[in-house]
Amino acid sequence: MDNSGTTGPTERELYLMRFDAGQYLKELRGERTLSAICKLLKVTPAHLSEIERGRLPTDHLISLLASIYEVDEDDLFRRFGKIPIMATTEVANNPALQNTLAEIARNKKLTAAQKSKLYEDIHSSYVRFIKGLK
Prior knowledge:
Number of domains: 2
CATH topology of the largest domain: 434 Repressor (Amino-terminal Domain)
Number of strands: 0
Distance between the termini: 44 Å
């Protein structure tokens, strides 16, 4: 059970999120044909058409789409309701980060708002740290 006090999106909400992401891809494609983009992606037009109608693409395909359309990869991952590859990799390779996130998630004394505040504070600390390096 989720201890954060919030529940995840419903199946319908996930579908709508993915449909919206697919429509965004269709807008990015603009006047280019499905075939032209599919040649770059090395997928069939039917497959790309399904993604533009709400099918969830693989992480690799999301990365390729971001590159082809020259958009922010992290944003495209979020539009599909997925965690960006770099974030997943960083968590997977950093035990201290894993422990921190797990402890915050498990702490039943913290509300969802307090957890969000902690995450914002972690980000603010990072920004201050980076500014100090200049």
